User: Which sequence fits this backbone?
């Protein structure tokens, strides 16, 4: 519910601070007095655009602040989802600086205009004589029917599931596109992987191949050197080791004479041991070395193959080739995983579509069951509004495919005259007829408590007499279920209000300003009389205004 509205420096308004009550509040005033300015200011906190033209004083900023009681509104999740502090008394504020730049706040937290508009849509609805455009909005039509059928929670749940389904379809399309692109290079990847995998690469292998090939390619020279060394060391009759052993024998008998001799004897023994070990090692190498052209050919082939792969893939060593091979394998496996994901996701989409179809069919059946009572309720109100032959009808037929609202295509049909078949609204109804139809629809909406506050902006244009009384009665009835603010020119409607404000202009210091004043009962009678008989109403008009005021039993509102 709108508790108060503060306006500073907006158009002709210097400063206004208005408090509102529940029930029906009336706003009246002469044409051009500023009623539209008041609603324009309110529109700013509902998310409308603004610029410096809204400023009364170009040197000061404009402030519009609406205070709402949101205690009984299902809006807490909106606060939580947007990380905003919740308070039962919530303030929406809009500021426009002297450069025309706008800032928006919810409970003193800066927000963007889109979020402010989202909040405002949950709090207040401004209904004007031009709002018949709503009938062209399919979401409005579905919301009306679904709220009447008491299935809005079911439809919201369906919409969430439907969006998830669409997201999965989008993901599937992306996966298929990725698969298509990957498949084009899969054969290439497989060939590259098979080539590297077949080689069975071993880390450090290239160094070993290089070393082994060096030995094989120079086996004759190496073997000759080892054989000659072996001959000199121990195979010759007069070899080095035999000669060294003779020297050791000589010093064995001399070591007792001098410690220095003894040290030499020890060193000679060590040299003998070391030299014998060297000789054995050389003999082993000599036997191991073989001239094997076949083996050399095989190793050279492998060496050349690895070199070719290094050059082909432009890498430095075998470790890089192994890493590349593993990458090829990973991509191939990811493709196989991609195929599994596509199969799994396709199955999920099919299952979700079946589930959605079941829920959509149930929603459709419940809609069809509620059509008759909705049409009956709206047509009853239309008769009360002076359209005895008015006929409102909901066209509902199954769609060829699922959509965000189920499987129903929905159309509002209307006929204002007897004998004419209801047709689509935009093709048949006049502005006045649409206006009364919308009033009937909003009356139905109020029964479902979809909004805490609704503002009717001269919805009664073109209405007078007995029909005006009925419009007032309907507004009064709506106000039992929600806060209603009505900008009106009809005395019959004005008399129905629980609270009554008059908007007027006044010139001060050669400057015209707009003011709003709350009227007491006697002032209300005077205002109603002016609405009935002009600026200076006679006694008869004033008496009629009193009777109308008393007849509406205003004190019981």
Assistant:
């Amino acid at each position: 519910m709108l508790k108060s509205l503060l306006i500073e420096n907006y158009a002709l308004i210097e400063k206004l601070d208005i408090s509102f009550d529940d029930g029906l509040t009336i706003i009246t005033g002469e044409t051009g007095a500023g009623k539209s300015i008041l609603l324009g200011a309110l529109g700013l906190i509902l998310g409308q655009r603004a610029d410096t033209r809204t400023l009364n004083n170009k040197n000061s900023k404009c402030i519009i602040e609406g205070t709402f009681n949101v205690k009984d509104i299902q809006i807490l999740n909106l606060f939580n989802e947007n990380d905003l502090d919740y308070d039962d008394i919530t303030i929406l504020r809009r500021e426009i600086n002297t450069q025309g730049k706008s800032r928006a706040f919810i409970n003193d937290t800066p927000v963007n205009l889109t979020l402010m508009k989202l909040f405002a849509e949950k709090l207040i609805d401004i209904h004007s004589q031009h709002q018949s455009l709503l009938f062209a909005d399919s979401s409005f039509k579905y919301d009306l029917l679904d709220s009447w059928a008491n299935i809005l929670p079911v439809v919201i749940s369906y919409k969430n599931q439907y969006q998830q389904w669409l997201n999965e379809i989008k993901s599937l399309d992306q996966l298929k596109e990725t698969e298509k692109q990957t498949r084009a290079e899969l054969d290439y990847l497989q060939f590259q992987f098979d080539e590297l995998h077949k080689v069975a690469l071993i880390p450090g292998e290239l160094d070993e191949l290089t070393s082994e090939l060096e030995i094989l390619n120079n086996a004759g020279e190496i073997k000759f050197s080892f054989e000659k060394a072996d001959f000199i060391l121990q195979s010759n009759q007069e070899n080095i080791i035999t000669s060294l052993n003779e020297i050791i024998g000589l010093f064995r008998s001399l070591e007792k004479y001098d410690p220095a001799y003894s040290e030499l004897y020890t060193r000679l023994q060590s040299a003998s041991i070391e030299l014998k070990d060297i000789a054995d090692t050389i003999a082993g190498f000599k036997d191991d070395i073989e001239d094997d052209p076949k083996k050399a050919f095989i190793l050279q082939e492998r060496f050349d193959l690895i070199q070719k792969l290094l050059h082909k893939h432009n890498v430095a060593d075998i470790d890089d080739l192994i890493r590349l091979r593993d990458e090829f394998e990973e991509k191939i496996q990811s493709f196989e995983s991609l195929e599994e994901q596509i199969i799994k996701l396709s199955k999920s989409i099919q299952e979700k579509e079946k589930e959605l179809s079941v829920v959509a069919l149930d929603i459709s059946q419940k809609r069809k069951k509620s059509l008759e009572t909705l049409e009956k309720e709206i047509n009853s109100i239309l008769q009360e509004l002076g359209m005895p032959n008015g006929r409102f009808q909901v066209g509902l037929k199954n769609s060829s495919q699922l959509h965000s609202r189920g499987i129903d295509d929905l159309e509002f049909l209307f006929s204002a005259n007897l004998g004419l078949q209801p047709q689509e609204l935009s093709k048949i109804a006049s502005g006045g007829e649409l206006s009364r139809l919308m009033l009937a629809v909003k009356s139905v909406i109020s029964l479902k408590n979809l909004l805490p506050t609704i503002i009717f902006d001269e919805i009664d244009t073109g209405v007078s007499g007995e029909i005006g009384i009925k419009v007032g009665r309907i507004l009064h009835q709506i106000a039992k279920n929600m806060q209603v603010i009505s900008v009106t020119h009809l005395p019959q409607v004005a008399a129905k209000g629980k609270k009554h404000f008059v908007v007027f202009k006044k010139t001060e210091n050669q400057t015209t300003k707009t003011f709003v004043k709350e009227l007491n009962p006697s002032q209300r009678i005077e205002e109603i009389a002016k609405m009935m008989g002009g600026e200076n109403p006679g006694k008869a008009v004033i008496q009629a205004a009193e009777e109308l005021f008393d007849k509406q039993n205003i004190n019981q509102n």
User: Anything to note?
Assistant: Residues 205-316 form one domain. The chain has a mean pLDDT of 85. Residues 46 and 121 are 7 Å apart (CA to CA). The first strand starts at residue 2 and ends at 10.
